Amino acid sequence: MKVKSYQTPYKSLSMETFEMVFRDPPPEHYSVIIRGKESWLFRHDQIAIILNCIGFVKDLIQNRALPNCTTIKKILSSLGSSLPSLIMALGETEGRKCRRLWSSCNICRHISSSILPQHLRKVCGIRGMLRALAPQRLPNIDFIFDSPAYRLFPFFVYMLSENDTTTYSPVLEGIDVADSIRLDMAVKQIRNYERTHLEDAALNLEDIIEYRRRLASDVCGVDKTLSTYAAYLSVGLARIYPLLVDDAISDFYFDREETFAYIDHRDYGRCLTTVFLDRDSMRRLLTFTRIAADRALDRASPSIRATIKTREFHIRVSADIPPLSIEGTSISVRKFFKKPLRLNDLVSNGTITREAANYCVERIKERKNFTIYGESGSGKTTLAVALDLLTPRAWRKVSVETEIVENVQQLSLGSHQVRLLVESSSEEERARRTAVLNSLLQKSPDYLFFGEVLSKEDSVALFQLLSAGLKCIHTIHAYSAESLLLRWAYQHQVPVQLLGELDILIHMQKFVKGRRLFRRVARISEIVSAPQDLPKIVDVFVWDDASGRLVPAIKMIGGGRCCDEKIP
């Protein structure tokens, strides 16, 4: 994208700013960034229409033979105020009649036809036009736009670098001003249609999006390639649409309202973004979160967590509001990938070495128990799912998950899988969760996926299952393997003899280098049972700071495959 920048001393987008652009116009097909107290990006088609409006008014001023009518006076007076005032003054001339002659004068028709083509003027309201010309707000950083990194139709995603900072910038280049106006009118049609068909109204986001997607295509005539974006536009989530549908983003965050998001990206790590969350978009997101959680979010209950799933994304939203969140409403969104990372992908992105990955493959085939521990957001569930996908298809697998829904559906892959959703946010749900865990022996699984061990009750149930011969893979929050065993033994009161039922311990770690966030396997250990004491931890692979990679600690227990063999 070719961009020309302008520096303005004014605090807002005043007419003086646009006159500056008018005096030194950008080359054809160049977008424009206006930098001041705030920065704004206008696409080339938007700035072309704006400059055309200003040029038209300039011609009016130079024409001394203008009729002395209210329309002309209003347009000329708007030139010294703001761009929206000018656009509204120009747009409101459509169909206006002079008081003196009680008929539409030629100058009014000429003004209205100079702004947009006739087929758009018939459907475009003034406010719709202003929305189509609205710029994208940018952080005050001196960006250099080059080639887009990839495309999320109708957005093009640019990864902008400055020093050690990477900024994720989605730009709505897949549609022009005319398309924006058509989408705006489609949204109005969708909402009007729903008002007259209240019996079809839905509450949860997935049903609303599916319903409005069909309306956009079948009723409003929106092209099918744009019907999905039109549906999200109609529910007020268009601003964060790229963050929701981009499968390369694992998490995104807003520390308070009226701020730019920052994200965790699969390839670029921790990034700033040019996605600005206004109060209206935040309110819409919180509304759907409350509906999904089926409870209130207010001063008496200022924290909420819920899972939202549509055809395009699957997310867990955690939100806090004042008085709990001092600076304002904060939102954290964890995304679950539609296409989970395979073990080969984790080898490719440096999360785990090929030698360590092949070791894990061998242990999976032997139906060893895997405990994956680490801090929040370190990639525990990602690795657990990657390992679970390596199990033989003939195995009967049972997956126990919370409202997060950690694992992926594997029936379409030919696996035998039963997924059990048991929440743990209330006392009643925790009791039910424990009952479900205790009933797993009757389900005869070959392997168990236990999403996350959350409480003492979960720990007790886990070791009851392990001592009964069930094999599983599970995740848990812990700083180190030693501290994890101590917590189980002394806080959760698991008999130390049962701790020997564990087999493989894997430590996931996240770290920041510069401004980038990385995830890695930092340690792989095996458990050696001790009759009357805590079991012994024997390291198989450990992170070596000198070489900056995971290296074998000892000769691998039980052997292992060569590092040059391919992972399935």
UniProtKB/TrEMBL annotation:
It comes from the Archaea. SUPFAM superfamilies: P-loop containing nucleoside triphosphate hydrolases. InterPro entries: P-loop_NTPase (IPR027417), T2SS/T4SS_dom (IPR001482), T4SS_GSP_E_ATPase (IPR050921). It holds the Pfam family T2SSE. Residues 248-489 form the Bacterial type II secretion system protein E domain. GO terms for molecular function: ATP hydrolysis activity. Gene3D superfamilies: 3.30.450.380, P-loop containing nucleotide triphosphate hydrolases. PANTHER family: TWITCHING MOTILITY PROTEIN PILT (PTHR30486), TYPE IV PILUS RETRACTATION ATPASE PILT (PTHR30486:SF6). Belongs to the GSP E family. This is Bacterial type II secretion system protein E domain-containing protein.
